[in-house]
Description:
Distance between the termini: 35 Å
Helix content: 55-70%
Largest sheet: 3 strands, antiparallel
Oligomer: single chain
Number of helices: 5
Mean pLDDT: 81
Amino acid sequence: METNNYTLNDVRRAVNVLENHNHTRDYQALEEVLPLVLVILKSQVKKTYLSEGSNKFYAPIWVDTLLERLSTDEHPLSDEEYQAFRTDVEKLSINDYKIADDDLFGYIPVFTSIEGITEVILSLKHYFGFL
């Protein structure tokens, strides 16, 4: 994930430059804050894109961990892990996903839809031979 080193003071300065640009016409200051403005705008576009047609749900952390492990051959599941995850997947249902209103211990926030949740559950159940 990409990170930046902008501070709250940088944001305040950028806001000040933008708000006063009509009066100051300080193009050098404007040029200096444009990278920060671009980061903020890209973040908003990404946030809007992720949330369009989706709702924020809490997914069980173990589901996210399992999907990550299955998506690469870097850390294959041991027989013991396979059996443990298999037992969990057998019981997995849409009710294990919670609408993200409050922070829940043992869950991770994801932007998805009911259809997306259903796809994950069906894929995992198929992988472990329940379908």
